Amino acid sequence: MAVNNSLAKQNKRMDFGMYLTQDAAKQQINKLLGGQAGTRFISSIVSAVQANPALQECTNTSILSAALQGEALKLSPSPQLGQFYMVPFNNKKKETKEAQFQLGYKGYIQLAKRSGVYKKLHVISIKEGELISYNPLEEELEVSLIEDDLLREVTPTIGYYAMFREHNGYEHSIYWSKKKMMAHADRYSAAFSAKNLERLERGEIPENELWKYSSFWYKDFDAMAHKTMLRQLISKWGTMSIEMVQAVDADMAVIREDGTADYVEMEEPVKDNVVAEQEEETPVQESAEASETSVENDFFNQ
Predict the structure, then answer these.
(1) Strand pairing partners for 85?
(2) Which site in 3, 5, 20, 134 is 20 to 30 Å from 153, CA atoms measured?
């Protein structure tokens, strides 16, 4: 979602709420929204910015572009809903901070459900002692899930399983071990190191350096793994609606004035905030996930 060139000339340090009262910003918002919808959009986006000090340091144009991209997809910026995020990162080349649009885990769920293609979509962490067997040729997973939810929650994760079934009967599933997921994150995320995660889990990181590990690969590895499994599953084997393709194209990008998506490599973390993840594989980039919720609530079935 492009932002008018005149908006780019605004002082990036201007209060975001005040920035939205400028004629150029109002015109840009009114192109997509109006009336109550516009009021709701402004209220939700201002709340999201106020709740994130690091986001307040980003250019207003990049914040507005990310927000309008989410609005165009009819997704919410609420961190509690986890549909999309405006994630600050340091752009050393421009010596400024910009907000990236990031499609959230719940955003994938919403867009897939909205497409009407999928009869069933399922993703889950497999815990230690649950896996009996997995046959990748037949796509058959045999598990014995821990029935005690509290016990299951604290049991170490050993892998991840995702599957879909379309209304036309076509289905596909994948299973990744946690070791494979760690290697994937280590290879494709500029902000993640498997060795550093192990150090973090052992409590070897000094408290004054913990801000460097604010990436959700560190904060909630399982939730990020769920996002990765859905992305891999749907983008490689599923049917993607035009809306989902548009969302994936914009994922992990700063939306520029001409509407193009600029995938900027992360060079350093933003202190006190989640770090954007940059993927090198195509066609999509990895995204961050706020928190893992009960997996039963994230399935949509017949």
Answers:
(1) 102
(2) 134
Using the structure block, give the residue that is written with the tokens 């393709």. 245
- Hey, what are 77's tokens? 């910026």
Q: Give the list of residues 6+ apart from residue 8 with CB closer than 8 angstroms, or none.
A: 61, 257
Percentage with pLDDT > 90 across the chain: 25
DSSP letter at 14?
S
Distance CA 90, CA 186 (A): 21
Residue 124: band (very low, low, confident or very high) from pLDDT cuts 50, 70, 90: very high
3-class DSSP state of 200:
helix
Q: What is the DSSP letter of 223?
A: H
Tell me the C-alpha distance between 277 and 87, whole Å. 10
Kindly report whether the peptide bond that precedes residue 77 is cis, defined as omega within 30 degrees of 0. no
DSSP letter assigned to residue 146 = -
Maximum Cα–Cα distance across the chain: 62
The single residue listed with the structure tokens 């990008």 is 253
Residues 6+ apart with CB under 8 A from 204: none
The gap between the terminal CA atoms of the chain, to the nearest Å, is 34
Q: 224, 217 in Cβ contact below 8 A?
A: yes
Rounded Cα distance, 54 and 273, in Å: 6
Output the CA torsion 150→287→296→243 (10° steps).
170
Q: What is the pTM of this model?
A: 0.72
The residue assigned the tokens 């999509």 is 284
What mean pLDDT do residues 108-132 have? 93
CA distances 212 to 6, 28, 206, 221, 266, Å, are 35, 36, 11, 15, 13
C-beta of residue 46 within 8 angstroms of C-beta of residue 16: yes
pLDDT tens sequence across 28-81: 787 777 666 777 888 888 888 888 888 888 888 888 888 888 988 988 888 778
The amino acid that residue 37 corresponds to is A
In the numeric block, the tokens 């195509």 are attached to 282
